[in-house]
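Hey, resending since the last one bounced:
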Amino acid sequence: MQKLHNYIFLFFALSLTAFVSFLTFPYKAPLTVELKIIKSSKPITSIYPKEPISKTQSFKIDVVDFPHGDTLTHSSIGALGVSKDFYLELNTIMDVKEDGIYRFLVLSDDGFSLTIDDKLVSRFKKDREYLPTMAERYLKKGQHRLSLFYFQSGGPLGLRAEYAKKGENSGALIGEDSKYIMFSLPGKTNAQFSPETVQIK
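The structure tokens again:
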């Protein structure tokens, strides 16, 4: 009976230790996407940059998820201080684990251009409401560079990019690992999320 009590005590002690560790050291998502914010000094109306650039900021994020709203906000790091006349340039490396057809879904307000290995996958050139664009691309096993370019002229904004292997019922955000694709920063190993490194000053 004493041994049973000892086992029960040990179980609860280990459970409490694990819980405290979780609260003290929360999970930090790996940074897998390079992001550049390009602010224009004049109004923009198209995905193709023509206007003079007034400010550029570069940093790293975990996933491509900027919720629909009135100012640019990232799902992990919060408000980023811009609301109109800017571009986003995002780059990541995909390590595809299995040959096959993959679906890519981009929800955007306003326009965007998505390329893989410098080849166009999908695009919407002009202003629009927060709407989805779906495209498919056959990918061979190995590394591929994914680039996403986005623009916001004014009014509501938002950007979210997802992927899934064809035939699967659910997908994941670009930058989020799955059993089919692993992501990493271009030319670098994965880092850990730190708000101090990504906030625009």
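The first strand starts at residue 30 and ends at 31.

Sorry for the duplicate.
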